[in-house]
Write the structure tokens for this entry.
Amino acid sequence: MRTIVLFAMSLFPVLCASAADVDRRIDDLIARMTLQEKLGQMSQSTSLKTPLSDAMKAEIRAGRWGSFLNAGDAKDRAEAQRIATEETRLKIPLIFGRDVIHGYQTVFPIPLGQAATWDPDLVRQAAREAAREAAADRIAWTFAPMIDIARDPRWGRIAESLGEDPYLASQLGAAMVRGFQGDSLAAPDSLAACAKHYAGYGAVEGGRDYNSAWIPEILLRDVYLRPFQAARKAGVATFMTAFNTLNAVPATADPFLLRDILRGEWNYDGMVVSDYEAVTNLIAHGYALDAREAARKSIRAGVEMEMVSTSFYDHAPDLLRAGEITMKEIDDSVRDILRLKFRLGLFDRRPLPPAPDHSRALVIAEKAAEESVVLLRNDKNVLPLSKSVEKLAVIGPLADSPVDQMGTWSMDGRADFVRTPLAALREMLGADRVIYARGLINSRNHSRAGFDRAVRAARDADAVVLFLGEEAILSGEARSRAFLNLPGAQEALVDAIAATGKPIAAVILAGRPLTFHDAATKIPAILYSFHPGAMGGPAIARLLFGDASPSGKLPVTFPRTVGQVPIYYAHLNTGRPPLPSDLGVPMGNPANPQGYTSKYIDVDYTPEYPFGFGLSYANFQYSPAELSSNTLPPGGRLRITAQVANSGRRASDEVVQLYTSGPLGGSVARPVRELKGFRRVHLEPGASTKVEFTITTADLAYYNPKMQLVTEPGPYRAWIAPDSASGAAVSFEVTK
Ligand code: GLC
């Protein structure tokens, strides 16, 4: 009880301070700050090492830095904060930032895996637990959520994204903001969140990281900016600018993004930080002649804190003297930085939160892992396996690799928290009934020296679970791939194990969609797990043996081959859409080129698996959707319903999806479908439920060539479906 009272009392000063009080305190501070102190606040360093050096202590004492990222340990941060709040002239606290992307000590599925849950509240809970653990280590700011729309699986950072769809990414990104920031930023267990990377980073050409992004404004607004606007509406405390150029202007010096849209249209009052040395990267972009010009262009555009590079501190005094920047620009940046620190309670000696409850976090991590796994194939109902299996062969290096299971950006992840699939299967069946063979040293390994043992394990077993995919180091930042195949000799391993004729199920762990068309023809059952985090083992074991049913849905389209990329569901129809006769093309063989439609002559134009796709152990039937009306007047709303039944023998969750398209005949061509809603339902065998969505004209809005957000009259369609490629459309008219 005492802890709770102290905890509540600690919030008192900040919660009582009105915005006006805070502004007055900020104005007073700014009036007293020297230029060096102001520029110190605008500077973030990664150089706080363990132990804190005397030189760094002296710099902190002199007000050289306002923030540190990914630096030191909790003890160092405590000492640095003590110096800042007791030994500096103005006692301005530091803010410690860190990449708490999908968990801190307890690692949850990578964001792409959390997106596969389509479960905003679970995603919020995971972020909440991550905040509790990080805040206990004196972190007050996370560089998450990463809400770049990603439609190119060659891009390694698709792993950190929430997928290809702006509606899904908006819902989940906002949920992460709410989770990280909690009910009050001032609460000791809250983190300031950071909407990144603003903007257009996911559209880098060729899927090559840090490359150029060319996005027409209509697409920028309709797709790439929507999750950032949702994060803004959710109250995200900070934004981070992206490395890439957007239409030839680096996002870290783009007044269109930072002033016109973020401050002008969205009226944002949070703080903007650059990405890591992105300010001085302007020189390599050819956009700045030197660090002085980089500082000028970045400050003028609206970047307020410089991450790691020091061009602001080094050159702003001269730029001010030359009249190339104004003191108002400096003061506005410092104001936003100080307001963030006030909002976090840092000026009121933000206390440590109660010790985090890792067991609670691990329960949420298991649920998230379980909901994140997508069942892609289950021919002849190979899955779920029977627990009466005498001997189970578990094959593949990823079956027992804690670091890989945690995925990219898990630098604080505790490997001792990780339960691998191998350990979980041994615990479930008994170690004597599980035969393990790595087959390969790691996912990139080409040596077949381990094949014999793996084949023997399969031959000695009644069933085989083959773990395939990517190590964690093959996705994430600067990990773009030009091929999407299973790395190393994995495909040969599939052939060797398939040749034994044993019943096989595969579990693919990866940081992106991979292409495994041929392997899939040899494996009747495939579970796909975007690096599932600490509790991936128990989750996968429960799903393999039917203690739970898969319910994950793909947040991103899976191509048949990398040559189809970019491939995504919400595409335009083109003037010569493909015909059904354009299907059935032999993979990689332009045997019979014909026709004049938008297709390939050497692979089907359709994806391997579409956005929103995911099977379960149930058997869901959807009735045709029904509309409350066939017309929708401006400002109106209509209801769309469908009956969803489970005619199978097993219970399962199902993520029911609402798509719309239209109008035909408007001022722009519109995508063939766009996600507008989703609902997770649970159905026991034989049960059914009526699922209802509401559609308003605002839900249907899009940008016209004049950059006006409109919902033009005309014919529209809607689907209630299990994925983006299924379901029967119903039509309605938006009237004038
Ligand atoms: C990295 C990433 C960014 C991260 C930052 C701090 O380069 O682009 O997402 O938050 O630097 O580590």
About this structure: Residues 444 and 488 are 4 Å apart (CA to CA). The mean pLDDT is 96. The pocket of alpha-D-glucopyranose is lined by residues 69-70, 99, 143, 196, 275-276, 477 (CB under 6 Å).
